[in-house]
Amino acid sequence: SVVIQECYVQNTAREYAKLYAAEAEPLEGFGEVPEIIPIFLIHRPANKIPYATVEEELVGEFVKYSVKDGKEVNFLRRDSEAGQKCCTFQHWVYEKTNGNLLVTDLQGVGMKLTDVGIATLAKGYKGFKGNCSFSFIEQFRALHQCNEYCEMLGLKSLRTTQQKQRKATSTKSKNLPNSSMVKKMVPKKA
User: Fold this and answer.
1) The pLDDT of residue 160 is above 70
2) For the whole model, what pTM was predicted?
3) Which of 103, 120, 121, 123 has fewest C-beta within 10 Å?
4) Rounded average pLDDT over 19-30
């Protein structure tokens, strides 16, 4: 069932988040660490839909902190403390699992996250298979930019020298809006 899978994924991600917190919190200047809230599965035998999930209600501005695909650029992810710490969490998990697993779809209110996903390589990781495409791992590797929190944790940069060289020779244009598509508003003369 999708609902059972959802619980399994979120609670697995939550365990990684706890390990991350245990490593990050003692570091001087790191501060608060994102938390993935628990999700509980309830069985309602008399109901048409016998399984449901229950979790704490998050009140406040709901923000997506991770890139779902390369086309989505989220400045809140890059500019907010929670966003940067989420990116560092992704990097930390990626490094801990030797690039086999990535927590994706990090979203929530402030440092409280919910409805996350996990991407694994096709074969899975330690008997666990994620619910997101492994292309998310490739995208993360290509798009992640280390920040001060990655440095505090001593995470290795994902930018290899080979990538840097390739970047220099690449002539692909960035997907910026075409200036001819931007209509200029000209005030009409009275």
Assistant:
1) no
2) 0.78
3) 123
4) 96
